[in-house]
Automatic annotation (TrEMBL):
Gene3D superfamilies: NAD(P)-binding Rossmann-like Domain. This is Reduced coenzyme F420:NADP oxidoreductase. GO terms for molecular function: cupric reductase (NADH) activity; ferric-chelate reductase (NADPH) activity. It comes from the Archaea. One of its GO terms (biological process) is copper ion import. Keywords: Oxidoreductase. GO terms for cellular component: plasma membrane. It comes from Methanolobus profundi.
Length: 239
């Protein structure tokens, strides 16, 4: 299959390209064509050193979406509207996978011995930062994207809990479960296959697109767990 990764020059995009580039044709999309081409060459070199013959190219986001059968939207939430407007004319009858998470960093002040956040009025109070899920008006980033695509385009939300660094490390097997949300079993089955293309990963059907907010909110949760418990790149496994 031809898979476009919009935001393919970022951390999570690199992991997708290296894992799926072993079996599929990958098109890296970016606002900067030169950067996309340079990164594509870098990914090809990495895969070649591991014994693969990859076909990874780089171009702008619209051209990448136009050439592909499956489009992975792996960009920041604040870039969503302009990118979706850009690719709208070329994504009819295709499958879009949203990896987008709307989240933000917050902070509060906690007094020693207190369970309650306070206003910073005493010197012994300290600041603690954490990430939280910033709920869009539509309920999730995926539901928002649904309002930005043609009727014939199928949308799936998935891969929100994959640690980017581990995904890009081809020496690691990822024994994780991946939640998949969507309204079409046709597109879900395609995504299940992409999950299984990554050794040891298991796809789980979470439900329709309306459940995507629950899955998206797991990303800031996992980041907070890792940061506050001195862990790295945590993910999920249902047992």
């Amino acid at each position: 299959m031809k898979i476009a990764i919009l935001g393919g020059t970022g951390n999570i995009g690199k992991g997708f390209a290296l894992r799926w580039g072993q079996k599929h044709e990958i098109i890296i999309g970016s606002r900067d064509i030169d950067k996309a081409e340079a990164v594509a060459a870098e990914y090809n070199e990495v895969l070649e050193t591991h014994g693969y013959k990859p076909v990874i190219t780089g171009t702008d986001n619209r051209t990448a979406a136009e050439k592909a059968e499956i489009i992975v939207v792996a960009i920041r939430y604040n870039q969503l509207a302009p990118v979706m407007e850009l690719i709208y004319p070329v994504i009819s009858d295709k499958v879009v996978i949203s990896v987008v998470v709307p989240m933000e960093k917050n902070s509060c002040y906690i007094s020693p011995g207190s369970n309650y956040p306070r206003t910073p009025i005493e010197s012994e109070e300290f600041n603690t930062e954490y990430f939280c899920f910033s709920i869009p008006e539509a309920g999730s980033a995926a539901q928002e994207i649904f309002t930005m695509i043609p009727e014939s385009t199928e949308l799936v939300a998935a891969f929100h809990t994959v640690p980017a660094k581990k995904l890009a490390d081809l020496d690691m097997e990822l024994d994780y479960d991946i939640g998949v949300c969507g309204n079409s079993m046709h597109s879900k089955e395609l995504v299940f296959g992409l999950v299984r293309d990554i050794s040891n990963m298991r796809p789980l059907d979470i439900g329709p697109l309306e459940t995507a907010g629950m899955v998206e909110s797991l990303t800031p949760l996992l980041i907070n767990v890792a940061a506050r418990n001195k862990m790295r790149d945590v993910s999920l496994k249902f047992i």
